[in-house]
Amino acid sequence: MNTLCKATAIIVAAGTGSRMKASINKQYLLLSGNPVLAHTLDVFEKSEFISEIIVVINKDEHKQFEDFILTPFKFSKIKSIIGGGADRQESVYNGLAMVSPEAEIVCVHDGARPFVTLDNIKESVIAAGKTGAACVGVLCKDTIKQADKSGIVEKTLDRTTLWAVQTPQVFKSDILLNAHEKAISDGFRGTDDCVLVERLGQAVQMIMGSYSNIKITTPEDLAFAETIVKERILSEPK
Length: 238
Known about the structure:
Structural class: alpha/beta
Largest sheet: 7 strands, mixed
Mean pLDDT: 94
Number of helices: 7
Distance between the termini: 32 Å
Strand content: 15-25%
Order of helices and strands: EEEHEHEHEHEEEEHHEH
Radius of gyration: 18 Å
Number of strands: 11
Strand order of the largest sheet: 5-4-1-6-10-7-11
Shape: globular
């Protein structure tokens, strides 16, 4: 396979998970017997489109990462483990500092999205290699209304053009680095990496993902995730 189609993955797992209301970070909560983060890393480990993995963790959780992930699973593609920053944007930027200089494509993914698929990774990496930037997402199912600050509806948006953004978000490495450095220079804080890249005038190609590619944030998400795992097990060929 053409090595230009391979990417460095930055797995962002530095959040505190306060909405989970658990005694440990949500990344290390068990899902079908294994930590959520282990499920996520396993998919990237198996992808032939990923050459190396950089994991960004909470700077105070190196022991948890070693105990829950490194020691029991021995993922061979993990190249670096780096502490996160004050927010997601800073955490990704910390991860970018560890990317190999020869890496041409960078794939950013949430550690708490364990149901990313090999096809999600493949399609987004290929698209980013062609266009410079790609993002996995799903079309909105619900009617979306825009309201003013008092809650009065101003207009109903055309949902056929609206996407719920997920990860992975994949970019040519120079584009992503330039986007982060411009955001730092401008004092801009974004909710994802795509918005930083969009500020450069770079087009982002949307890639259809899966409605099961959820981000585990609350106890209800974890319960739903267990249901997804059970359904997948039942659908496997016997």
